[in-house]
């Protein structure tokens, strides 16, 4: 059964089309990765599914019912973990989860049990009476998840749930996502960390300019770019780098620069042997090469090849 | 049920916001204390009349001289009045002009002339009153003498009386002292501060990031709206209640005998203020609304006499503008009820507040309904 189905979903802001005739099916039990750089239309789509925005056109079906018409049914079966923390700092962890779960009709002992269960699930049961203002970033992120799951939704949308937290908390959250999925929840997962998506998602959609430009399992997506090789060159400095000169080398499809680690990433035709020419070009420009690596295509390569941009652009 | 949950959350959240509570409670109490004591004299209407000095030139003879001497002797020393004889070479009128004497009296056979001082009108009026009384009795005696000389002596004797000035306590309407005034003014001002909490009702959810979670929950927008307004009304009314009780029992401010009615008026003011804040926050769509609400509240406070009394005689443009301040409406109604027991003063201000509240809330609800999210 499809837990979520989008049929020609469109959202316009004036003349700007943020989501353009998007269609998608997410089946029960999937962890569905939703990838797109900033402004691709990913958040707008999620906001429409969450009833925060009204679609300009198309249809959203949750558990086979029209979500725009049967809003209450759709909301009852949906849990959202927003990218920005959505918790009250002056209310205890228990009160936060209890308040939001109460809005889904839970009352009395049932409510209390579900809240305790949710806090236990995210590893915060010993912090139930503590205030989030005293929590670490990772603990706040976990509480953010607890607030979305206490009412046991069928579909959970997690928008960047691991942003800005330590590796330990990230691992905890990823494990929690898997456990939620094992318990029967369908999950839509967005992240800027490609390795997370690759690790936990069973199916992935890549969104660009409001449209889904690729969809499938990670293996299926990687298979779409067998004719591309991924070359990574680490330089001492990027100061003298002339991208236009590099682009003129035959076979090169996409060039991108990672400023943080002085890395140039090149997607080139696999059939064209141009590595020597690329290196010569860089050396002639007076650049010092520290490392060269040619990788098999991964999800990031797929994204870069399809969109021409890094996920974090 | 969701409305109550949201209202309860709102109250719990705000009560734990230490800075807001300090702002809502400590600030007005402190202001009441400081302004109440600093401006004590502004509210003190007592006038002290003592050492009333009168200069007299008595050139009369016969019965008038005799009667006047008896009158002056009887009155002199009473109630702080002193009659000094005019010395040779001294100009009586000049003495009054120089304010060394309150009055100058010339008594001659042709009559009594009084020269009062415009600089001491109260003292002058007292002396004038006594002299008029004396003159009336003397004239009556003169008239009786023509008919029955024996009886005239009785009337002449009556001019010897000394009780021309009688201290009588007049049971005037109670007037507010400075603490009394500021207790009302500050409480009404706190009611108006509801506009600030109202202005941040929706914005705070956006700032906390919780607006998305609320909007995604199976709760109607109207429930969110009513829950937040209800929570804010209860919180603001509790603050108003604390301010009233604190001023009544700690500062001993006078609140009259109709406290329930007073709280009812304040409730309508709080509802109107929160509605105003909510309306402006939807109109302005974001951060600037806080500044606009603050300016409106401060203007209303100033014009409404929260910081300094704005008298009824304030005329011209300022006088007209003061009438636009909800704090002024509240102040006037509460003062009428507390000091004049004028219960009818409550209805117009309550109707006005609730009318405006319906308008603001209606407009805000409409804007919320049209908006995506909350």
Automatic annotation (TrEMBL), chain A:
Record flagged with keyword Methyltransferase: no
Record keywords: ATP-binding, Nucleotide-binding, Transport
SMART domains: AAA
InterPro entries: AAA+_ATPase, ABC_transporter-like_ATP-bd, ABC_transporter-like_CS, DrrA1/2-like_C, P-loop_NTPase
One Pfam family this sequence matches: ABC_tran
Keyword Acetylation: no
Superkingdom to which the source organism belongs: Bacteria
Segments forming domain ABC transporter: 4-234
Gene Ontology molecular function terms on file: ATP binding
Identification of the protein by name: ABC transporter ATP-binding protein
Organism in which the protein naturally occurs: Paenibacillus dokdonensis
Lineage of producing organism: Bacteria, Bacillati, Bacillota, Bacilli, Bacillales
């Amino acid at each position: 059964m499809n837990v979520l189905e989008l049929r020609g979903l469109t959202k316009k802001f004036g003349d700007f089309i943020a989501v353009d005739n998007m269609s998608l099916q997410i089946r029960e039990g999937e962890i569905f990765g939703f990838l797109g750089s900033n402004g691709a239309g990913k958040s707008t789509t999620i906001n429409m599914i969450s009833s925060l925005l009204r679609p300009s056109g198309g249809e959203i079906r949750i558990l086979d019912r029209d979500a725009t018409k049967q809003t209450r049914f759709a909301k009852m079966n949906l849990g959202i973990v927003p990218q920005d923390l959505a918790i009250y700092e002056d209310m205890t962890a228990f009160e936060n989860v209890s308040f939001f779960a109460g809005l889904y009709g839970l009352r009395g002992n049932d409510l209390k049990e579900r809240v305790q269960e949710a806090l236990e699930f995210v590893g915060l049961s010993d912090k139930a009476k503590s205030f989030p203002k005293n929590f670490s970033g990772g603990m706040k992120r976990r509480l953010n998840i607890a607030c979305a799951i206490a009412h046991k939704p069928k579909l959970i949308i997690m928008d960047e749930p691991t942003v800005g937290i330590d590796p330990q908390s990230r691992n905890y959250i990823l494990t929690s996502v898997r456990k939620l999925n094992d318990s029967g929840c369908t999950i839509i997962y967005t992240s800027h960390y490609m390795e997370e998506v690759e690790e936990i998602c069973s199916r992935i959609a890549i969104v660009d300019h409001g449209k889904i430009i690729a969809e499938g399992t990670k293996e299926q997506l990687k298979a779409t770019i067998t004719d591309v090789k991924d070359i990574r060159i680490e330089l001492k400095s990027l100061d003298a780098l002339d991208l236009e000169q590099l682009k003129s080398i035959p076979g090169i499809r996409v060039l991108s620069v990672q400023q943080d680690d002085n890395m140039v990433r090149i997607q080139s035709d696999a059939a064209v042997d141009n590595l020597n020419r690329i290196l010569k070009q860089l050396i002639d420009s007076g650049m010092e090469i520290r490392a060269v690596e040619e990788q098999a295509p991964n999800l990031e390569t797929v994204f870069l090849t399809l969109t021409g941009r890094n996920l974090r652009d | 049920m969701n409305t109550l949950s949201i209202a309860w959350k709102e109250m719990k959240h705000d009560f734990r916001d230490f800075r807001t509570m300090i702002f809502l409670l400590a600030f007005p109490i402190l202001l009441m204390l400081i302004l109440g004591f600093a401006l004590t004299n502004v509210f003190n209407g007592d006038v002290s009349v003592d050492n009333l000095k009168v200069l007299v030139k008595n050139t009369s003879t016969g019965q008038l001289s005799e009667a006047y001497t008896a009158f002056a002797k009887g009155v002199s020393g009473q109630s702080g009045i002193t009659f000094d004889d005019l010395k040779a070479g001294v100009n009586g009128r000049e003495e009054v002009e120089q304010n060394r004497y309150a009055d100058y009296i010339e008594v001659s056979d042709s009559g009594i002339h009084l020269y009062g001082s415009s600089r001491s009108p109260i003292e002058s009026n007292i002396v004038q009153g006594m002299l008029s009384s004396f003159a009336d009795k003397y004239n009556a005696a003169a008239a009786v003498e023509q008919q029955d000389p024996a009886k005239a002596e009785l009337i002449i004797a009556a001019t010897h009386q000394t009780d021309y000035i009688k201290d009588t306590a007049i049971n005037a309407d109670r007037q507010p002292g400075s603490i009394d005034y500021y207790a009302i003014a500050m409480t009404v001002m706190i009611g108006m501060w509801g506009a600030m909490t109202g202005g941040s009702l929706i914005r705070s959810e956006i700032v906390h990031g919780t607006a998305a979670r609320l909007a995604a929950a199976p709760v109607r927008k109207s429930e969110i709206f009513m829950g937040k307004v209800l929570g804010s009304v209860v919180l603001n009314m509790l603050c108003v209640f604390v301010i009233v009780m604190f001023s009544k029992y700690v500062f001993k401010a006078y609140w009259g005998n109709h406290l329930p009615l007073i709280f009812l008026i304040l409730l309508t003011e709080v509802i109107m203020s929160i509605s105003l804040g909510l309306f402006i926050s939807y109109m302005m769509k974001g951060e600037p609304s806080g500044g606009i609400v603050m300016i409106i509240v401060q203007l209303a406070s100033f014009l409404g006499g929260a910081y300094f009394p704005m008298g009824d005689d304030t005329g011209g443009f300022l006088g007209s503008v003061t009438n636009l301040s909800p704090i002024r409406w509240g102040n006037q109604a509460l003062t009428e009820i507390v000091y004049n027991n004028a219960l009818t003063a409550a209805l117009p201000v309550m109707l006005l507040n609730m009318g405006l509240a319906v308008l603001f809330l209606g407009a805000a609800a409409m804007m919320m309904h049209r908006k995506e999210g909350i």
